[in-house]
Design a protein that fits this description.
With 159 residues, the protein is mainly alpha-helical. The chain has a domain of 91 residues: Winged helix-like DNA-binding domain superfamily/Winged helix DNA-binding domain (Arc Repressor Mutant, subunit A). The protein has six helices and three strands. Strands 1-3-2 form a three-stranded antiparallel sheet. It is globular. The two termini are 19 Å apart.
Amino acid sequence: MPHTKAAKAFTALIIESFQWNGRLLSAGDRLTKPLGLTSARWQVLGAITAQNLPVAQIARNMGLARQNVQRLADAMEKDGLIEYATNPDHKRAKLVCLTRRGRATMKKLDTLQSTWANRITDKISATEIQTAYALIKKLRSRLEADRLPPKPPGKPSAK
């Protein structure tokens, strides 16, 4: 079946998103390096800035593998950025919480990120960015709802 015009545009957006993600992670690594962080650690810290969460919930929220988040959280605990706390809703799934050092690190990172974001978005309107955000959010929602695997080409559908 040939792509519709929207499907072709979506495919191009996917490829651009892969490239953008790579550049974004590299930029995040450069931004966080002076603080002894990586983009991956930043993601975990950012996920718990507003609310303490168990590892599995952080992974679900960020679209990451639970095992990777656990590995990062354990390393950040050793570095004093996070600590584990009892979860009143679950006996075994501890909550991941920022420590005082973790909050201070996030405050410094917020300043660095603000300066960087202002530079990157110079001469781009907030409306353009909000439109892109709305589209990506809508597509993410559609992807989350789409649980059917694609049909292999050339195979008849089962009746």
